[in-house]
Amino acid sequence: MNSRTRFPELDLVRFLAACAVMLFHYTYLGPQNHLWSGSFPFLAQISKYGYLGVNVFFILSGFVILLTAYDKDAIAFTVARMVRLYPAYWICVTLTATAIVLTGTNHDPITLRQYVANLTMVHGFVGIRDVSGVYWTLAVELQFYFLIFLVLLIGQIRRLGGLLGMWLFASIVLSIREPRGIAHFLLFPEWSSYFIAGAMLFLIHREGASRYKLSVVGGCYILSTAYAIRLLPFGGDKLEAEFSAPIIASFLAVAYAAFTFIALRPRVSGGSNPFYMLGLITYPLYLLHQDCGFILLRLAPTAVNQFVLLFAVMVAMIALSWLVHIGPEKWLASKLKSALVKPEKAAISIQSLLAECLRGSSLKKAIPTASIPSVVPVTVSTGAAKTPTIQSSAANQRVTTGNGTL
Prior knowledge:
The chain contains 14 helices and four strands. By secondary structure, the protein is mainly alpha-helical. It has one domain (8-351). The strands form two sheets. Strands 1-2 form a two-stranded antiparallel sheet. Helix 1 packs antiparallel against helix 3, helix 3 runs parallel beside helix 6 and helix 3 runs parallel beside helix 11 (245-264). The longest helix has 34 residues, at 306-339. It starts with 7 loop residues before the first helix and ends with a strand.
């Protein structure tokens, strides 16, 4: 498959999912938690399911990360992810923290330690609170990236189909046990089914559908739904009465069906992507919209119509995300990419050296004893007597292999 194959639908889906999450926060969660004074009784009955946009993000990540990682090694994958994630993230964390500090709108003041820790993106793993509540999803994404990194590191990306099936099976087993232990942390069964489904759908697109692959995707849908509607014994509290289990299951079914259609649809390399920019600004939009948006909603004059205000704030968040992308994000990404050139080369050298050592060790074990040169007596003729002399039977010869000369 050509690496330049375009998936414009994915960029559109990504943007729509971010807008759904934004509507969920502004029209349902915000008013319910008194984060601003808006009230949308009718709209909230629909937008309250917008949180499922995050679930869509996870399926999409499974597909897109495999699309970008399949022909890379572990180091190139890591560098590419850092350059894609960190520049926008650093900018958005800084903007959000600054806005909160200047307006004093957060009940829990942001400390310098918390801000610096958030810049690493791994702060959640050591118990440090997020600057913005939406950052929790990044920790889940990092867990998935780590597993893909390991698969690339051990050179098993071509066996990914089988590994995904094993991961799904392990997730099902873990889902009926109490959520604790290193296996539960590494395989995160609450969310793993979405990533497994996205990755398997990528393989369906790349290699074609099979009964096994489609069965794995179907199993992912069942596990996803079981967690989403709280059917599992350790899947969290019961589903709140105001949410409908059939609606949630139906939404996830539509999402899975849509991604399956995208995976099965024939592609051509190159071509234009009318939604390319929407896909690029989705990441900063997701990172900025919650706290910065609520600040704008609270600071707006009460006389402004709430629907007009809602629309204006959503447009403002989209515009701010666009400015972040075309300005500081691009500049910072370029600087970070340049800064990582030397570390990347050093890491590649170390990786090559380790690989050579491992190959050498394996080769020595693989050489049969009979092929090892032995020391034998050889009789050398002289003009007088015959004197036994010690000489290698492989003198002036070298042992050669496919990898070179030993």
